Input
Amino acid sequence: MNDAVEALARKGPTGVEVADWIRSQIRSSRLVPGQRLVEVDIIRQTGGSRFKVREAFQRLAAEGLVEIEEFRGASVRGASMDEVRQLYRARAALEGICAAEFALKATDEQRRKLADLADEMEVCVEGGAPERFGQLNSDWHSLLMRGAGNAVIEDIVKRLNTPVHHLLFETFYKGDRLREAARDHRLIVKAVLDRDGPAAEMAMRQHIENGHRFLTDLDRAVHHGGVGEV
Amino acid sequence: MNDAVEALARKGPTGVEVADWIRSQIRSSRLVPGQRLVEVDIIRQTGGSRFKVREAFQRLAAEGLVEIEEFRGASVRGASMDEVRQLYRARAALEGICAAEFALKATDEQRRKLADLADEMEVCVEGGAPERFGQLNSDWHSLLMRGAGNAVIEDIVKRLNTPVHHLLFETFYKGDRLREAARDHRLIVKAVLDRDGPAAEMAMRQHIENGHRFLTDLDRAVHHGGVGEV
DNA sequence: GATAACAAGATTGTTGACATTTTTATTGTC
DNA sequence: GACAATAAAAATGTCAACAATCTTGTTATC
Output
């Protein structure tokens, strides 16, 4: 909120800030795949000039988050189920290697923090607090990548997630996903505390793979071909 | 060249085309880290309007390839040795998993093509044709990722490479890097032909790691702290 | 009522002009 | 010659106006 206030105190938000705003709207499902991003609407809602809004569109297009068509403007890009598969495969590889690295070189404090977050999530599972679980989960994964000393990977993963964020939110509510995820986390934390790199990597890959399988099953149940595909 | 001709036949290049042009200049070391990208210069050289050039800057900034400072414009971003390490770690993870996948599910034709390219590269090593080796090497890695059925990873890796491309070019000329790389490729191809996923993954990770070590040694020899860092 | 042609409105693409800031060149002083 | 102050030039940031295109609503025709 600090940034937003600061932006308003000045004349208006920068292109980067507008892009962040749009990204947050996508994450919270207020903007869904296929939806058109009309310039004037964004201007009204952010206070940014047309110039800044168009800057933001270019940046988001480069990230692959929006699609720009000539004379039709920007719209939120969706991902096909096949692209989702590729996304998750990439995440499994990247976060897997971070887990291994974390297990070998994280500080004691980082390890403890990782375990604590996992414990908190378990409480959320029993107490039925999926939103809080989602936030903790995001923190947990970030901590792991940061502790592995790889901000580049952290950045990539954050971008990879955005196209399916509107789904993650829903999926956390349904089925036994929370319980399963908590169990996965427990395995990873154990390997980390044992300083067992390969085990941590394998457990992390399995964890991501489970998330993907859950998404696939969900999609098959709803039985439309793509996930927000347009 | 086809695209460039087409662009000239029309009124001028699009923002994406200007971005591609800048990227190619960086790849060929005609633009080096720290160098400022003056709008009028780009306009003169590409024929694009100022509008398009600024679009291109935004896209490249989103990719992390250029840096934009207020009232100072865009400049080519360099990478610190620590960032290079993170980059290579990410590549090792991503290409490693692609190698494993390729070994399991590539078509016979793709396998043969992979082996053929490796053979061609060996010839280049003996014949002393490093530029051709570089091209073949790029094709080889692309083929592997495409054959693994993961265009998302292919895209990420391409971006990851750009900030160090001006180095790759030099490094191919020096020392025994070519010979070493050819040997690595041989190991990977063997694992692929054996349909041994884990072996392919391990060999690929080692290959990327070797490339990183070579870069590190080179940097230590030249003994300045960063690689095009500004 | 369905459809096609047309017109009005909405939306995006592009350009040029001007404001702001940085960079470079010049001058004056010691 | 070194340095600081100043002015000129260069470069970037911003905006408003207009052009090109798409979208929507209306009318005419069958």
Observations:
- Chain B touches chain A through 27 residues (CB under 8 Å).
- The two ends of chain B are 32 Å apart (CA to CA).
